[in-house]
C-alpha cells in the first residue's frame, strides 16, 4: 500500500451526525421521507441526525449557492458537537462545489462521512481521500437509511461493521435479496416494503491469485465529471488500489463503461491496480450485463491486466440494499476462495 489514511472516530450510539445536501436540495420535497431516515438511524444505530444550516433550504437556493453547500461541510467538520456526516441524497453538480472547499479543514477535523453517487466528487474522492481521511461509500439518508418498511438488515449490518463497531477484519458478503423497483417516496407508502428478488451472488470475471490494496472509487459517471479537474486523485493514490465502480440510474451503455476504463488505462491507472470491484449495474438486461463483462475483460486485456482479480455484480451504489465500504481501507481479494475481506 503506497498511501495510508486516517481512520476517523467511530460513530457509536449517541453520536450526533450532520445531514448534508451537498448536491441536490430535493429533500424539501420529501420531508416525510427525511424524517423516516432520521427515525430509522436513531432506532438502528442510536444516532441523532441533525441538518446542517443550509441543508433544508430547497433546491433553488442550493443550486444557486454552491458556497452555502461548502459552508455546510465546513460547519459540520468544525462543530465539536457533530461527530460524523451523512449525505442526504446525491444529484449531478457537486463538481460546482469544488472551488469552495477547504482541504485543510478536513485534515484538521477528520470525521466519518457516509454517502454515494454524486458524493464521489466532493467528499469520497476529492476531499477525504486527498486529505488522507477514510470515507465511507454507502447508503444516503433518503435511500437505504430511510428504506420503506424499515432498513434492510443487510444495510444495518454493513453500516455497523464499517462505521460503528470496533475496527476488525470482516468479509463482504452478497446480499440475499435485492431490488431496483421504483416506489414513490410518499407518506402513504413509507411503511410498505418494496418487493425484492433473490440475490444471484457475485461473478468473478478473472484472476486466480490473491491481491490486496486500499479501496478507492465510486460512481462511474461522477468520476467522469471529476476526471481532469484539480480534484482528480494524484497517481500515487491509485497505485496498488482496489478500484470500486458503480453506475447510476442513467444506465450508461456497456461500451461507455469500456471507454471510461480505456481512459484509466491511458492514464496508467488500470496497470497499477490490485483489484476491481464492480457493482450490479442498475437497469441492465442480462444481455447488457454480459456485454459489460465482455468490455471489462477486453479493456483489461488491452492494458495487459488479464491477471487482475475482478469481482462483479456486487451490492454497491444504485441498487438496494448496498454494502458500506471504507474507502482507504485495506481490502484483500481471494478469487479461488471467493472472498473479499476488509482487513484494515
Task: Describe this entry's structure for a reader.
By secondary structure, the protein is α/β, with parallel strands linked by helices. It folds into 2 domains: 16-167, Rossmann fold (3-Layer(aba) Sandwich); 177-342, Glucose Oxidase, domain 1 (3-Layer(bba) Sandwich), CATH 3.50.30.60. The chain is built from 12 helices and 16 strands. It has helices at residues 31-45, 59-64, 66-78, 103-108, 119-125, 128-131, 153-164, 220-226, 235-238, 254-266, 269-272, 286-302; strands at 16-20, 48-51, 84-87, 112-115, 135-137, 170-172, 177-178, 197-198, 203-206, 211-219, 242-246, 275-279, 310-314, 325-327, 330-334, 339-342. The strands form 3 sheets. It has an 8-stranded mixed sheet with strand order 6-16-15-10-11-12-13-9. A 6-stranded mixed sheet has the order 2-1-3-4-5-14, sandwiched between helices. A two-stranded antiparallel sheet has the order 7-8. Helix 1 (31-45) links the parallel strand 1 (16-20) and strand 2 (48-51). Helix 10 runs parallel beside helix 12. Its EC number is 3.4.-.-. Residues 212-332 form the LD-carboxypeptidase C-terminal domain. This is S66 peptidase family protein. It is an enzyme of class 3 (hydrolase).
Instruction: State the CATH superfamily name of the largest domain.
Output: LD-carboxypeptidase A C-terminal domain-like
Q: Looking at the chains present, what oligomeric state does this protein adopt? A: single chain
Total DSSP E strands? 16
What is the beta-strand fraction?
15-25%
Total DSSP helices: 12
Order of secondary-structure elements: EHEHHEHEHHEHEEEEEHHEHHEHEEEE
CATH class identity of the largest domain = Alpha Beta
Shape: globular
Largest sheet: 8 strands, mixed
Number of separate domains: 2
Instruction: Give the helix/strand class.
Output: alpha/beta
Mean pLDDT: 94
Distance between the termini: 11 Å
Radius of gyration: 19 Å
Q: What ranges have pLDDT less than 50 throughout 5 or more consecutive residues?
A: none
The CATH topology of the largest domain is given as: Glucose Oxidase, domain 1
